[in-house]
Amino acid sequence: MSELERAVAEYLSHLGVERGLSVNTLGSYRRDLRRYTAFLLSRGTMAITPVTEADVLAFLAALRTGDEEHPPLGPASSARAVVAVRGFHRFCLREGVVTTDVSAAVKPPRPVARLPKALPLEQVEAILEAAGAPGTVLASRDRALLEVLYGTGARISEAVGLDVDDVDLDEGTALLRGKGGKQRLVPVGTYATSALADYLTASRPTLVSASTSTPAVFLNARGGRLSRQSAWTVLVKAAQRAGITTEVSPHTLRHSFATHLLDGGADVRVVQELLGHASVTTTQIYTLVTVEKLREIYATAHPRAMG
User: Fold this and answer.
1) Catalytic residue among 89, 155, 204, 255
2) Of the listed 90, 117, 228, 251, which one is catalytic?
3) How far apart are CA 219 and CA 130, in angstroms?
4) pTM value?
């Protein structure tokens, strides 16, 4: 066994015994470091001391390009391997095996930005129509909840966190409490306002419990504040009744809200304010969705789009 392989074995032992990593996580580290060791040995490096930053960068490049024995790795898998390598080099530095961490400046590759999932308008409308059993108190609540989620772009925690005093039906506004205690006043569309009015006047009083009096807008069957988990279930069941086969979450309605606004010509900074994003950079990922849509339309409609 080479000095390099012994150093890796000591690090893996440290992870298993002193850090208490799970069997699966330890297995991932072992596979990644075995590949790293084989890569260095193939370059004639038998010990940890001669390894340079260039070697670590070359290993990362080899992960992304692949070889005869290994297919190319994507950003996420490559990043995992780089994390294992960086941990190994930090360990060697702490143990006094080396005097410099040559991997410190090597950053794991950033994952490709995933486009948010957005539903077509007709699917959103089908979900809203399918909320709850018609004519029941909970159906009125469920419809109002989903209308608010889609009509304001609220996070699920913001929607269930609404108190009655936060909603102004005359002005058509709602005060949302976002991350870090930040508040924002957002417009509530006519459909959501109407659904809220119906629920607050006809159904919420039925749900109110004297023993668990709460100012919450959305109540559960016992009169307490509706939980995030229960609100999630409301949406999932409505989507199932609507025949939507794709996976749907409360964030799906938030994504759809943003995407539909941008498709309709809204400025990205307006959407940023409505969503409560601290930075417009976060909001700009939604513009990728609309660009993809434009590309599809262009490819099918322009006579010289396809060669």
Assistant:
1) 155
2) 251
3) 19
4) 0.60
